[in-house]
């Protein structure tokens, strides 16, 4: 339909152009008085637009379209303007009608654009409504995601606080390890050569070293000294954790613990968390943890499982290697019994012993259980490695009121004033020592001193 309308408009425009050219030719010949002009003017009037259909190219032979005639009828623009000015009255209606038709045509041509813009505005309005809805939906989802993220952040903050506390404890533990390693290195140089029984022991142990073990004797000795340091530090850390837990949850138990310690400690210190109190608690815990260490299976009246001594040493060392890297997370997942029934029995037995000493029956929190597990694992590994030697390494214990001997004992609270006092006796043993080949790893004790009078 649009192509048909366009064709009719073109035909009308061509007809009007033919009339204008005929008028132009008549004006050029100066025949304005000819009856042809009134016919043209009358036929060109807007009031009778269809009258133009009565005229044809034969009525105006001058206007017959031809390339040659067009070439011969060229007139300068100045002449055309003068002629058109002289006949302004006659051409006015013709041109006004033509331009009105042109404006009408332009308006009709512009109407699709207006409609298109109107459709576009409607589309934009609809799109705006849709975009608002989508934005509301996105905002709701963003709020939900924000709430979830805030919950995760709060969980992470609490986790970070716990990690910081554990990191502080780990740093303290590492510092104590460094100090213990330094003391252990210094203790290596303590050779006991002036005792006849130790010399015999040294010769017999050197002559009976078994080279069939997976590692050398020197490596086993170094490993044993390292485990001793770890065991001492882990028990110390367990005692600190235990005191803090008791102070937070059970004040009556603190009083019981203080009275229990006072039986061994006669001091005027008002601090319940003094070093002396910590060392006395450590002594009680070590006494329970190292009980029956001399037995081959770390149990009172326990019997050997493998009759062949060499095979028994190999199995002890294999068990040591298997449990050396056992972590707390693995214990939480599968339990200690999954990894070793003997170690599980040992943990249950020692935990019951400590609970009976403290008269504490309530369940232990996880951080206290973890600290106990670390100390129990170190002492169990120490026993396995000690019985991997041939002969097994012996533990060194001292009893109360024993005369202090600096070759076998170390007083951990001795100061400069007490060094001048010659008479000293053992008040309590805090940590046991060990005979390691031809060397002695001294036990740690608290002493009571008497003035030399």
Automatic annotation (TrEMBL):
Coiled coil listed as a keyword: yes
Coiled coil: 132-180
All copies of domain GIL1/IRKI C-terminal, residue ranges: 395-446
InterPro entries in the cross-refs: GIL1_IRKI_C (IPR056813), IRKI-like (IPR042316)
Residue ranges with Polar residues bias: 204-213
Top-level division of the source organism's lineage: Eukaryota
Protein keywords: Coiled coil
Protein name from the UniProt record: GIL1/IRKI C-terminal domain-containing protein
């Amino acid at each position: 339909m649009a192509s048909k309308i366009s064709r009719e408009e073109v035909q009308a425009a061509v007809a009007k152009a033919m009339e204008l050219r005929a008028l132009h030719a008549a004006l050029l010949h100066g025949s304005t008085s000819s009856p042809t002009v009134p016919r043209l003017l009358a036929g060109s009037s807007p009031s009778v637009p269809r009258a133009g259909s009565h005229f044809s190219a034969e009525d105006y032979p001058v206007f017959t379209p031809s390339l040659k005639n067009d070439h011969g009828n060229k007139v300068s623009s100045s002449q055309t303007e003068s002629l058109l000015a002289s006949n302004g009255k006659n051409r006015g209606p013709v041109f006004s009608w033509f331009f009105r038709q042109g404006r009408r045509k332009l308006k009709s041509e512009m109407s699709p654009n207006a409609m298109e813009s109107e459709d576009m505005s409607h589309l934009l309005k609809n799109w705006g409504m849709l975009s608002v809805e989508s934005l509301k939906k996105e905002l709701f989802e963003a709020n939900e995601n924000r709430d979830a993220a805030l919950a995760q952040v709060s969980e992470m903050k609490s986790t970070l606080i716990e990690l910081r506390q554990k990191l502080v404890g780990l740093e303290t533990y590492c510092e104590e390890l460094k100090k213990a390693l330094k003391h252990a290195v210094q203790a290596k140089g303590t050779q006991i050569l002036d005792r006849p029984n130790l010399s015999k022991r040294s010769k017999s142990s050197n002559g009976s070293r078994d080279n069939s073990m997976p590692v050398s004797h020197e490596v086993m000795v170094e490993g044993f000294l390292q485990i001793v340091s770890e065991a001492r530090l882990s028990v110390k850390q367990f005692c600190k954790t235990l005191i803090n837990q008791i102070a937070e949850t059970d004040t009556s138990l603190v009083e019981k613990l203080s009275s229990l310690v006072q039986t061994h400690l006669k001091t005027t210190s008002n601090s319940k968390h003094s070093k002396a109190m910590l060392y006395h608690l450590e002594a009680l815990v070590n006494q329970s943890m190292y009980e029956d260490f001399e037995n081959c299976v770390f149990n009172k009246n326990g019997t050997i499982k493998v009759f062949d001594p060499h095979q028994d040493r190999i199995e002890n060392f294999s068990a040591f290697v298997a449990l050396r890297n056992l972590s707390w997370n693995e214990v939480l997942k599968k339990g200690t019994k999954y990894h070793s029934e003997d170690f599980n029995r040992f943990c249950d037995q020692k935990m019951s012993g400590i609970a009976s000493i403290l008269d504490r029956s309530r369940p232990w929190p996880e951080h206290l259980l973890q600290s106990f597990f670390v100390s129990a694992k170190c002492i169990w590994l120490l026993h396995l490695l000690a019985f991997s030697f041939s002969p097994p390494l012996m533990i060194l214990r001292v009893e109360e009121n024993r005369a202090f001997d600096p070759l076998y004992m170390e007083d951990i609270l001795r100061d400069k004033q007490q060094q001048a006092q010659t008479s000293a006796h053992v008040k309590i043993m805090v940590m046991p020592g060990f005979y390691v080949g031809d060397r002695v790893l001294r036990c740690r004790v608290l002493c009571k001193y008497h003035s030399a009078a």
